[in-house]
């Protein structure tokens, strides 16, 4: 019988040979310690597939999920390929989330299969900062192909899983995505005067490789694509000098 100590030593040797890819690979941080600190890789890995779904079919939740992806793409480098099934993207809205329309290349696909094929082609190009697609269905083999196409590069892949007409959870189907997010709208922060404050989202990381799921409330992306902690949740001392609320580290 092999002792547990021998097995542990062998595993440690294998890790030393293979290395820890999560630490070596480039990451796009959110710039909010309370959020990045709960993600295994410290942010969104740029050489990986990440799935996003709205919390419900409601248009406000769908918009929140779309702008969540736009903010991530805004903070990535270079041009962005956005593959759609329908012409419902609102360029001024993307701009408000930090994504300049001049950076976006739009491609309209006939069906989900074509969306996935165009995304894969964009990821293999290696000249894009982000590749975004919107589908209703994507099986494990489809997401595995996207993940493989992203590996080795610095192009982040973001896949929006839309709600089907028959309902159900869009993230129920198994996926090769490194992280899977569910985004919904939340009540905005109250203002000391009459009016509506900055929009807030309920951000849930429902699955991540190497880490635990969690859920939190965040202020929506600003004009630079950054999220922030609501004032009632943030450390007041840290928030005063902006260290946590608006810090940002540009991806390499």
Distinct helical segment count: 8
Q: At the third CATH level, what is the topology name?
A: Rossmann fold
Q: How large, in whole angstroms, is the Cα Rg?
A: 19 Å
- Quote the distance from N terminus to C terminus: 48 Å
What about the largest sheet?
A: 8 strands, mixed
Which geometry do the CA atoms define? globular
Q: Which range does the strand content fall in?
A: 15-25%
**What is the chain-wise order of helices and strands?**
HHEHEEHEHEHEHEEEEH
Question: Strand order of the main beta sheet, please?
Answer: 5-4-6-7-3-8-9-10
What number of domains? 1
Protein name: Protein ImuA
Organism: Sphingomonas panacis
Could you give a quick summary of the protein structure above?
The chain has 252 residues and is an alpha/beta fold.
Question: What can you see in these coordinates?
Answer:
By secondary structure, the chain is an alpha/beta fold. The chain has a single domain (23-241), classed as P-loop containing nucleotide triphosphate hydrolases (Rossmann fold). The chain is 31% helix and 22% strand. The chain has eight helices and ten strands. The chain has helices at 4-18, 21-24, 33-36, 59-75, 91-96, 112-125, 140-150, 236-241, and strands at residues 27-28, 44-45, 49-54, 80-84, 104-108, 130-135, 156-161, 179-186, 200-208, 214-219. Strands 5-4-6-7-3-8-9-10 form an eight-stranded mixed β-sheet. Strand 4 (80-84), helix 5 and strand 5 form a beta-alpha-beta unit. Helix 6 (112-125) packs parallel to helix 7. The longest helix has 17 residues, at 59-75. The model is unreliable at 18-24 and 235-252 (pLDDT under 50). It comes from Sphingomonas panacis.
């Amino acid at each position: 019988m092999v002792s547990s100590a021998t097995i542990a030593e062998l595993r440690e040797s294998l890790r030393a040979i293979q290395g820890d890819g999560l630490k070596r690979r480039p990451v796009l941080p959110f710039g909010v310690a309370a959020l990045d600190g709960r993600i295994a890789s410290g942010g969104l890995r740029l050489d990986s597939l990440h799935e996003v779904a709205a919390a419900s079919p409601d248009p406000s939740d769908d918009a929140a999920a779309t702008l969540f992806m736009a903010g991530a793409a805004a903070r990535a480098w270079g041009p962005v390929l956005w593959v759609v099934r329908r012409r419902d993207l609102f360029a001024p809205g993307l701009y408000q989330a930090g994504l300049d329309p001049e950076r976006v290349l739009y491609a309209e696909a006939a069906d989900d299969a074509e969306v996935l094929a165009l995304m894969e082609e964009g990821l293999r190009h290696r000249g894009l900062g982000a590749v975004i697609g919107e589908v209703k269905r994507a099986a494990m083999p489809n997401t595995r192909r996207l993940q493989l196409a992203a590996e080795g590069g610095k192009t982040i892949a973001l896949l929006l899983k839309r709600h089907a007409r028959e309902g159900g959870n869009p993230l129920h189907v198994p996926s090769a995505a490194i992280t899977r997010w569910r985004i919904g709208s939340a009540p905005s922060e109250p203002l000391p005067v009459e009016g509506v404050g900055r929009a807030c989202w309920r951000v849930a990381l429902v699955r991540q490789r190497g880490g635990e799921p969690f859920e939190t409330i965040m202020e929506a992306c600003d004009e630079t694509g950054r999220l922030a902690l609501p004032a009632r949740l943030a450390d007041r001392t840290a928030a005063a000098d902006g260290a946590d609320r608006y810090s940002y580290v540009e991806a390499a």
